[in-house]
Design the sequence.
């Protein structure tokens, strides 16, 4: 395995750590509701930071955007809007279905869709090679790890009484989770199908890793609208617009940190996936998702979320994390 591949895998895994931890600062918000924090996160992480990063790292950014292939630009916008919708549905679906079941269902779709669609559409000739078989096997192992983590969460909910909370409209909740799983991986589809925008930025002098910031700028700007509008709707429906003034300095800091961590996850993922070659979006996505899930589970345990959980739930969780580690090894070796 050469140095560039090792660097790419390392960067993607670091991106997964950032992604798995970006919601942690929300626990620090005091006097704000979910909508307040999510709006500020969207403003910082989906507009301000991506714009600053692109302006600093992509020479002739405006020229790159205006002269990029039309199909690439359209893909970045449409998939960005789709990812934004998926992000909103993710939150609604988990709230309606429950954290363990909803999270498991949604991630169970995000991982294979984000991996297999770019492989089948852009690189169908690789599907039946040894590399393709290894990637498929690794993706199946990721799904097994997701199942084990979701099972652990389900047992924990039943033990703590969270599962007893009534869920209204199971069929609707299931449908919401399904569409969340379909739309959320569009972030990776944007990276894969808008590659022409990245190539145009490279032609104008950006490095391969930095050139990905042109894609993230367009994708995240498009994804800002669904996220911000839904967050503001929640605040308005709760008649809580005035609460933006509550503990404003500290709350803006923590919500902004969410945005910085979220964009950092995409930024580093872009560096890593670019280093992995033409299958970067295919190989990188399951690695990214696996590390994000490992990180979120680990932080949950460290923060006391699993306090009082039965040993059976802990065993399932550890088995899930172990399975995801195996998936990382399998997928990494496949790309070697």
Sequence:
């Amino acid at each position: 395995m050469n140095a560039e591949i090792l660097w790419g895998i390392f960067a993607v895994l670091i991106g997964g750590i950032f992604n798995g931890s970006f919601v942690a600062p929300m626990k620090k918000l005091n006097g704000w509701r979910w909508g307040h924090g999510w709006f500020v996160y969207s403003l910082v992480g989906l507009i301000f930071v991506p714009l600053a990063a692109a302006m600093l790292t992509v020479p002739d950014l405006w020229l790159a955007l205006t002269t990029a292939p039309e199909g690439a630009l359209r893909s970045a916008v449409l998939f960005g809007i789709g990812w934004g919708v998926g992000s909103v549905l993710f939150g609604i679906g988990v709230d309606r279905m429950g954290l363990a079941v909803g999270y498991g269902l949604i991630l169970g779709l995000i991982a294979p869709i984000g991996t297999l669609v770019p492989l089948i559409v852009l690189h169908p000739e690789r599907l039946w090679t040894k590399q393709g078989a290894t990637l498929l096997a690794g993706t199946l192992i990721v799904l097994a790890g997701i199942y084990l983590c979701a099972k652990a969460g389900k047992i924990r909910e039943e033990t703590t009484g969270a599962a007893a909370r009534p869920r209204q409209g199971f069929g609707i909740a299931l449908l919401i989770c399904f569409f969340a799983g379909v739309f959320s991986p569009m972030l990776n589809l944007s990276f894969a199908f808008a590659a022409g925008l990245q190539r145009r930025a490279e032609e104008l002098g950006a490095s391969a890793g930095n050139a990905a910031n042109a894609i993230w700028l367009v994708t995240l700007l498009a994804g800002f609208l669904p996220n911000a509008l839904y967050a503001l709707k929640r605040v308005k429906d709760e008649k809580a617009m005035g609460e933006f003034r509550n503990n404003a300095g500290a709350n803006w800091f923590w919500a902004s940190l969410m945005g910085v961590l979220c964009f950092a996850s995409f930024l580093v993922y872009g560096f890593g996936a670019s280093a992995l070659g033409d299958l970067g979006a295919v190989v990188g996505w399951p690695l990214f998702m696996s590390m994000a899930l490992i990180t979120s589970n680990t932080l949950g345990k460290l923060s006391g979320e699993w306090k009082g959980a039965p040993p059976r739930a802990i065993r399932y969780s550890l088995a899930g994390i172990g399975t995801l580690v195996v998936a990382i090894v399998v997928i990494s070796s496949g790309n070697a």
